[in-house]
Amino acid sequence: MKLLAIDCAASLCAASVYDTAAESELGRQVLDLGKGHAEHLMAVIDAALKAAKTRYTGLDAIAVSVGPGSFTGLRVGVATARGLALALKIPAIGVTTLEALAAEAAASFPGRAVLAALDAGREEIHVAAYDKALVLTYGPAVATLAQATAIAVET
Is the peptide bond preceding residue 140 cis, with omega within 30 degrees of 0? Predict the structure, then answer.
């Protein structure tokens, strides 16, 4: 199954084409924009598809970051994913940024519990805890560093 992944949650405007059967990334394009995701996202997706030697019609699903992150960036990513999914008659799947971080950590450190965290500003962090099977056990929530440390110890 070929999956198009879209992330506009932060300053990056990113798209990746992933083959789930081969567990392999086929192509990607990433721009560090800060702002302007709406103006660049379709070109970023086109570049990722070109690098993957894939067309829109070759996609089986679309995954999109649903936050936490920039409200405007999230709207751009979700609206684009939804529009493409409707046009292509394929599913669109929302994935939190914390889920994506946890999955990456679990792949690097199999068999371990994971605490995924992102800077939320104002001396707080977005946090979610997952057990060894990547089942959510806490959050997602906003916490202080002290609270997140306590959650990590419990996990």
Answer: yes
Tokens found for residue 101: 């971080």
For the four alpha carbons of 28, 129, 113 and 120, in that order, the dihedral sign comes to positive
Q: How many CA atoms lie within 13 A of 30 on its CB side?
A: 10
AA identity, residue 89: K
Domain count, the chain: 2
Q: Cβ(104)–Cβ(135) under 8 Å?
A: no
**150 and 102, same structural domain?**
yes
CATH number of the CATH domain containing 28? 3.30.420.40
pTM here is 0.87
Q: What is the pLDDT of residues 116-127, one digit of tens each?
A: 999 998 889 999
